[in-house]
Design goal:
Blueprint: H1 2-8, H2 11-28, H3 35-48, H4 58-75, E1 80-87, E2 93-99, E3 111-112, E4 115-121, E5 126-127, E6 142-145, E7 152-153, E8 156-159, E9 165-169, H5 171-174, E10 185-187, E11 203-210, E12 224-227, E13 257-262, E14 266-283, E15 286-297, E16 311-314, E17 319-326, E18 332-337, H6 338-345, E19 348-349
Parallel strand pairs: 2-4
Antiparallel strand pairs: 1-2, 1-14, 3-4, 5-17, 6-7, 6-10, 8-9, 8-19, 9-12, 10-11, 11-12, 13-14, 13-16, 14-15, 15-18, 16-17, 17-18
Length: about 350
């Protein structure tokens, strides 16, 4: 009966039924007070969906300022791996502190400059480095440098001002953490998926440029591009993914619903839980600090090793970030904001464009 009811009843009736059900719970539980106000709040929540707070929200700006002032001291705690601006348990803007273990929780203040501080135990943050597709391969599939037995993910096909074609992924996927020479062959699949043996038949492009990862100064991105052709790399995900990303990017906002397609976990859904993140990321060559990062949370694994380089897009498929790292179980993911990445390489997403 319930599936038939959902199929044939207008959305207004479904919404009304939900409101009446909530009202019934309040009455039977003995609620006394402004029931009309409670019903209005419930109705607004149902109509508006998840709450999104961007950098222009006054309370978010206050939290960002507090994070900026106190972030360096918080990051000096050995067990702290990151800070960001997100929400506390009451869904109010807060400074979020991420720790390796519960040991550091007692050393973290409950508030700074009147802004609440919330602590999340995530474990160490690591880069997410880990099938042959007919050409042109979709985005979101295995890729890697010929000189390393690992696999990451093709994030997106991108174009420069002359409409030349490249694909985007991470430095640690395509450039081996700064070690690969420009022009090195890039393999699809990555060598981890080929028993660590490179064959020229799997060459899909060549390393064209990368932003070096610094182990002594702050980083904004873990990113690289490879030169390719339209016959080798397509623009959309496999059929079970979100499809073709849009060419128009958007800025990250707290509460924004997002998705990605990656080599290991495929199509996954998550929520941006914090912005302006500062994280210490443990690479093979050492620990690198990243600033102005996007934090994504999910109740199940959003990314796992091999998903590095995945494009982070909104539910409307607008690119918002480039994923590169996360915690051990993949429920917390870190992404570079997409606009600085694209500006660094002078490229745009080769995606769908609005109709004129």
């Amino acid at each position: 009966m319930k599936p038939a009811f959902r199929r044939y009843c207008p959305r207004a009736l479904v919404l009304l039924a939900a409101i009446l059900a909530v009202t019934a719970v309040w009455l039977t539980a003995g609620w006394i007070g402004p029931v009309e106000a409670k019903m209005t709040q419930a109705t607004e929540a149902l109509l508006q969906g998840p709450r999104e707070l961007d950098v222009n929200h006054p309370r978010v700006q206050a939290a960002l300022a507090a994070q900026h002032r106190h972030g360096p001291l918080l990051m000096s705690e050995p067990e702290v791996v990151g800070t960001a601006t997100g929400l506390d348990n009451a869904d109010e803007p807060a400074v979020v502190v991420y720790t390796k273990s519960p040991v550091a929780v007692g050393a973290i203040p409950s508030a700074v400059d009147g802004i609440p501080v919330t602590v999340k135990v995530t474990g160490e943050i690591r880069p997410m480095q880990t099938e042959f597709f007919p050409r042109p391969v979709p985005i979101g599939v295995s890729v890697g440098n010929r000189g390393e037995c690992s696999s990451g993910t093709i994030g997106a096909r991108v174009l420069d001002a002359q409409k030349r074609v490249y694909f985007l992924s991470n430095n640690h996927v395509l450039a081996r953490e700064n070690h690969a020479p420009i022009g090195t062959a890039i393999s699809q699949p990555g060598l981890y998926d080929l028993a660590c043996v490179f064959s020229s038949i799997n060459r899909i492009g060549n390393l064209y440029d990368f932003e070096p990862i610094s182990f002594t100064a702050n980083n904004i991105m873990d990113a690289a591009i490879a030169r390719c052709t339209r016959t080798n790399v397509g623009r959309a995900t496999p059929a079970d993914g979100y499809g073709l990303p849009k060419a128009v990017t958007v800025a990250a906002a707290i509460g924004q619903q997002v998705q990605k397609y990656g080599r290991t976990t495929g199509h996954t859904l998550g929520t941006i839980s914090a912005i302006n993140g500062t994280f210490n990321v443990a690479y093979e060559d050492g620990t690198a600090r990243f600033v102005n990062q996007i934090v994504v949370n999910s109740t199940t694994a959003f990314i796992l090793p091999g998903d590095s380089g995945s494009l982070l897009v909104t539910n409307r498929r607008n690119p918002v970030g480039l994923l590169f790292a996360g915690n051990g179980n993949g429920t917390l993911a870190i992404a570079n904001p997409i606009d600085p990445v694209l500006q660094r390489f002078g490229v745009t997403i080769d995606g769908s464009v609005p109709r004129q």
